[in-house]
Amino acid sequence: MNILVTGGAGYIGSHNVIALLEAGYNVIIFDNLELGHIETVNTLKSLNTKGSVIDFIEGNLLLLQDVESVFSKHHIDAIIHFAAYSQVAESVKEPLKYYYNNVLGTMNLLSTAIDYDVKKIVFSSTAATYGEPVYTPIDEKHPQNPINTYGRTKLMIENIMDDYDKAYGIKSVRLRYFNVAGADSQNRVGEWHNPETHLIPNILKSTFNNGKVFQMFGTDYDTKDGTCVRDYINVEDLAQAHLLALKYLLNGGETNYFNLGTNEGSSVKEVFDVCEKVTGKKIPVERKPRRAGDPATLIADNKKAKEVLGWTPKKTLQDSIKTAYAWEVELSKRLSNQVK
Ligand code: UDP
Question: For the domain bounded by 2-181+232-260, which CATH number is listed?
Answer without folding.
Answer: 3.40.50.720
